[in-house]
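Example record for the data management plan.
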Amino acid sequence: MSDTHSNTLGWLLDEQLGSVEGVRYAVLMSGDGLLKARTRTIGQEDGEKLAALTASLRAAGRAWDEFTGGAGVRQQLIECVGNVGLTTAAGQNTMLSVCTTGPHADIGLIGRHMAELAVRLGEQLGTGQRHTDRSTAG
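Corresponding structural encoding:
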């Protein structure tokens, strides 16, 4: 697996989110949990774990939305004793997840930066859904 910080999107995450006060680290992932990019403040292995964890939380959020008759999930927030986690859609089948430095971080400011990054990059961040080629399955 390639280093997901040394790619263009890793650098962009550092520039757009890594410099925001209260952001501990950020990852960009596909909807099924494949890490696409990370800030320099989280290692490759931990970034992959966070991407997979975020994908499962996103699935739970979609189930919640369906159960409550919603029209789609835009953002999720997890408030813990020591930090806050935010996840937002960032293009087709792509999510952006941030962990804060503490429970009192400015969630409004961080959320605004996340939304601006998602809008700014839109189509560039989109990831098509992966499909299994059944003709080669054996």
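Summary line stored alongside the record: The mean pLDDT is 86.
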